Automatic annotation (TrEMBL):
It comes from Mikania micrantha (bitter vine). Residues 1-45 are annotated as: Disordered. GO terms for molecular function: serine-type endopeptidase inhibitor activity. Keywords: Protease inhibitor, Serine protease inhibitor. One of its GO terms (biological process) is response to wounding. It comes from the Eukaryota. InterPro entries: Prot_inh_pot1, Prot_inh_pot1_sf. The keyword rRNA processing does not apply. The keyword Ribonucleoprotein does not apply. Pfam families: potato_inhibit. This is Proteinase inhibitor. Belongs to the protease inhibitor I13 (potato type I serine protease inhibitor) family.
Amino acid sequence: MSQLMLHHQPPPAVPSLSRTQEEQKQGVHNQESRMASGCRGKNSWPELVGADGEAAAATIERQNPRVNAIVILDGTSTTKDLRCDRVWVWVNSDGVVIRTPIIQ
């Protein structure tokens, strides 16, 4: 007589609200990989890190007229959907760009 063995698996772990910097870097890399194939025009502006956020947004929109660059304070919640017409420009409390703006 054979026995049927059921294996109880624990529920999947709930992701933490805070991610490590390495996870954030990997997430940006994955986002860049996803959007690079589907979105047209320039899609990443690493040269703007350290620049004024409003000036960076104007540069982004000038270099890729298909996008709307949105200046946003670091730590603000955003949607996670990929849109070829949106670039988050993450700034600190001084209005300085702190992450590479990419199409998201």
